[in-house]
Amino acid sequence: MSIDVASTPIRNASVLPFYRFLAKHPRDPVSAFEEVGRQAGGRLVRLNMGPFRPYLVTHPDHVQHVLRANQPNYVREGMFWDPLIPLLGEGILSDGETWQESRRVLQPLFTAKYIESLADRMADILTEQIDATVRPGEPFDVVNGISAIVHPTIVRLFFGDRISKDDIDRLIPAYEVSVTATWPRLLMPFVPASVPLPGDRAFRRSIETINRVVYPRVHEARRTAGEGRDVVSAICRARAEDHGEEGDRRIRDDMVSMHGASTETSATALTWVWVALDQHPDLAEKIYAELDEVIGSEPVRPSHLPDLRYLKMFLSELVRLYPPGWILPRKAVKDDEIDGVRIKAGSTVMISPYLTHRLGAFWDRPAEFDPERFGPDQDRRHRWAYFPFGGGPHKCLGQHLFMMEAQLLMASLLSRFRPVLSASRPVRPRLASSLRPNQKVELTLVERARA
Ligand code: HEM
Fold first, then answer.
1. Ligand 1 test: best mutation among 265, 273, 409, 435, most atoms within 8 Å of CB?
2. How far is the CA of 95 from the centre of ligand 1 (A)?
3. What are φ and ψ of residue 396, in 5° steps?
4. Which of 30, 299, 326, 445 is the most exposed place for a label (fewest CB within 10 A)?
5. Can you tell me the distance from the alpha carbon of 266 to that of 313, in angstroms, rounded to the nearest whole number?
């Protein structure tokens, strides 16, 4: 699909009428978005969204250009990121020098080896959270129920015993409000920050609550960092040279940013697990057979995970079709050219794993859920055709952590129960800050009869 740039004059991107597609699918915006992807067919296009005309990048070569080859030109700034600055500060979700410094501090922590060292603790916390949340035989709302397991698990892993149950109960709703309260600003990016919008006050209050919980934990971790195996202690050790308020603030920014990057994404991915199992009973049987063979009636331990190969393939396919980070927005700093198409400085460039993962030119039967794509004998695919965890210098730090958490959670539940799902109509993704289901989905866990 690439063209000879040397012999072709630079041209403007063709424009796709996104509003018209939306009008065609008024109840199902994700179908409109999929249609955009099909019509673009890997070409670099602009979307006509009224006064806002972002570029849409889906071809793997172009994704590679934006996320890696010319990455410094595509920064996490602009309408999607700026409203979040008061929450995220100058940490790992910023860009430029402050991001670079956070990455230098955090990257060595998130090695597979460090994550493995957290595994036993994670398995124990998950078991406690599952016991506190799931009532066998009684239905629970999948989105809320999975969040009620995943969010406290991550907070407890990050802060260890330094955080009380009361503080967890204050922190988690505050995070939730902080993310949802910025929606009016995201929908009306042309409104200056000085003009108040609904949600602004709730946003400020949620940040105050987050700070009241997080700062004391940071101060305490600074005093006793040598002893802690939790994430905040590890960061305090890595930032031992950064003294005073500025140092505290940077640790706070990284803790809050990592919470933002890890909880909603993990909970969303783990919500789709149940939908996919329900839609594919044959694949569910393969998972049960593997769990019976590897775990039997024992409690799930991290030592089981390397043998749960099919489960890992299933999860890889899950985040292909339902990547929680379905859109990765950037701002172009300078004029650029991708495959002969002009990118204007200052404009928004959107990369979409959701669309790239469905491109027919790079995926056989793209809409079909097939974990075998990630089996050991598969042909190598284009390196940038699959990037649920992003790529290049901003690549996700939590990929191993997520895989461990997801395998532990699924293995813990599915080795004991069979999920029975109820939904009023076919479940489709809803385009929001992450890719949640478009309706309430209820799950009942029924005790499994084993052979
Ligand atoms: C299913 C689960 C997850 C998915 C799909 C996911 C996806 C992503 C994606 C797409 C990015 C790139 C963002 C960008 O380019 O702007 C990213 C970055 C990041 N993720 Fe994850 N993530 C997940 C879980 C986690 C977890 C559990 C952590 C815990 C530490 C985490 C920490 C981060 C951080 C710190 C970054 C920013 C890295 C940087 O900019 O240097 N993620 N993630």
1. 265
2. 14
3. -50, 135
4. 299
5. 17
How many domains, in total, are found in the chain? 1
CA of 394 to the centre of ligand 1 (A): 8
Nearest residue by C-alpha to atom 20 in ligand 1: 396
Test site for ligand 1: of 88, 396, 405, most ligand atoms within 8 A of the Cβ = 396
Residue 236 assigned to a binding site: no
286 lines ligand 1 (CB under 6 A): no
- Tally Cβ neighbours within 10 Å of residue 135: 11
SS3 content of the chain, % helix, strand, coil (to 5): 55, 10, 35
Q: What is the CATH number of the domain that holds 309?
A: 1.10.630.10
Residue-wise over 235-271: b if at least 16 C-beta within 10 A, else e? bbebbeebeeeebbbbbbbbbbbbbbbbbbbbbbbbb
CB proximity list for 356: less than 8 A, separation 6 or greater: 58, 59, 60, 63, 362, 384, 385, 386, 387
User: pLDDT tier at 6 (50, 70, 90 boundaries)?
Assistant: very low
Q: Closest ligand 1 atom, CA of 393?
A: 41
d(CA 293, CA 308): 9
Q: Is the CB of 33 under 6 A from ligand 1?
A: no
Res. 4: pLDDT tops 50: no
| Residue that the structure tokens 């209820």 belong to | 442
Three-class DSSP category at 15: strand
Report yes or no: 133 and 140 within 8 Å, Cβ to Cβ.
yes
401 pocket-lining for ligand 1 (C-beta < 6 Å): yes
Asked whether the predicted pLDDT for residue 120 surpasses 90, the reply is: yes
Q: Which domain holds residue 280?
A: 5-447
Q: State the amino acid at position 44 in one-letter form.
A: L
pLDDT in tens, 301-325: 999 999 999 999 999 999 999 999 9
The encoded tokens of residue 381 equal 């695919």
